[in-house]
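Let's practice the habit of predicting before peeking. Look at the sequence and jot down your guess about where helices and strands might fall. Then scroll down.
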Amino acid sequence: MRKVVLTGAAGFLGYHLAVQLLKEGCVVIGLDNLSTGQKDNIKKLKRSERFLFIQGDAASPMVMDLPELQRADEIYHLASPASPKFYQSHPLETIEVNTRGTFHMLELCRRNKAKLLYTSTSEAYGDPAVHPQSETYRGNVNTWGPRACYDEAKRLGETYCYEYFTKFGVPVKVARIFNTYSAGLRNDDGRVISNFVTQALTGQDITVYGDGSQTRSFCYVDDTVRGLMLMMRESKADGEILNIGNPEEYTILEVARKVKQVSGSESRIVYQDLPKDDPMQRRPDITKARQVLGWSPLVPLEEGLKRTIQAYSQLLRGKRQGEL
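Done guessing? Here is the structure:
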């Protein structure tokens, strides 16, 4: 029975990953400081007797001495705010968990001869001058701006991983994750899909920043989780960086219109100023993930939106009934 440590277990992606690990029969030790994660996610995970939750911060050096984290076989280091709304509200904490927190998890792996998967981000490419983005592209980044606390912290986290792989032989894998979505995203998360779906279902104006011509690629959470688990399992991924995302590319305006169409919403689409340093295009080249893992996403955007909208609708109906 594998013992897995999962930081960021209360977050959107952490919760979905924990569910799948438990289904595989793993013992899962979830670590989260609950700064942006949801307590309800932990409550649901605790229904399994093989899940143990520890409220703590991966950036604290004390985590390395926690007895529950010792003798782990695998560590998934997901802990970090991922939405601009949250990481810009907690910039120093975001830097710490992706740098010192990554160091702590790597050191635990070195001591326990465990494997580590670090979730980096497509934000490592900045506002890319190369399209689509492959893992060899070094990025077009700004170290002096509101997104740098996340982008640059993730890049330094990758450097820690490189050093531990080359110096100590720790089997490290780095996943650069592109936009992941499903109904599990907080509806106050501030990211594109959660914003659009919540606005459409509640009759609010759907807010598009800029003229909506900037592009993104959206990967349904089931596909992202499957990619991460394949990476952890595959020894060929040791010491490698892999893009995990859906190569289908859409403009933000196209996504807003799709959400309106699928939800049957009569919301208006309105426009606001584009935030500073918002990338104009983003699309992964997943050739390497296909070759190393045999992985590619299975859920197209329209199907993922249908699932997401249906789940959000049920959630909103439940809230309204609770208010009556």
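How did you do? Residues 183 and 312 are 6 Å apart (CA to CA).
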